[in-house]
Amino acid sequence: MAFADTIHVPGLKQPVDILTDKWGVPHIYAANTADAFFAQG
């Protein structure tokens, strides 16, 4: 099942993509480490 949505989150410096593979594992792609950790929670 594919899912796509856009959420604007204050605190991010650059866009972050979070993709979920067929096993339900999220993969975070960010331009910088701080945004990646911020998106991870």
Structural class: alpha+beta
> In terms of per-residue confidence, which ranges show pLDDT below 50 for 5 or more consecutive residues?
none
State the end-to-end distance. 24 Å
Q: Please report which band the strand proportion falls in: under 5%, 5-15%, 15-25%, 25-35%, 35-45% or over 45%.
A: 15-25%
**Alpha carbon gyration radius:** 11 Å
What's the total helix number?
1
Residues in helix, % = 10-25%
Shape: globular
The residue-averaged pLDDT reads: 89
- Major β-sheet annotation: 2 strands, antiparallel
Please write the string of helix (H) and strand (E) elements.
EEH
Summarize it.
This protein has 41 residues and is of the alpha+beta class. The protein contains one helix and two strands.
Structure description:
This protein has 41 residues and is α+β, with helices and mostly antiparallel strands. It has one domain. The protein contains 1 helix and 2 strands; from the N terminus they run E-E-H. It has a two-stranded antiparallel sheet. Strand 1 (16-20) and strand 2 (26-30) form a beta hairpin. The longest helix has 8 residues, at 33-40.
Tags for this model:
alpha+beta; globular
Can you lay out the helices and strands and say which pair or pack?
Layout: E1 16-20, E2 26-30, H1 33-40
Antiparallel strand pairs: 1-2
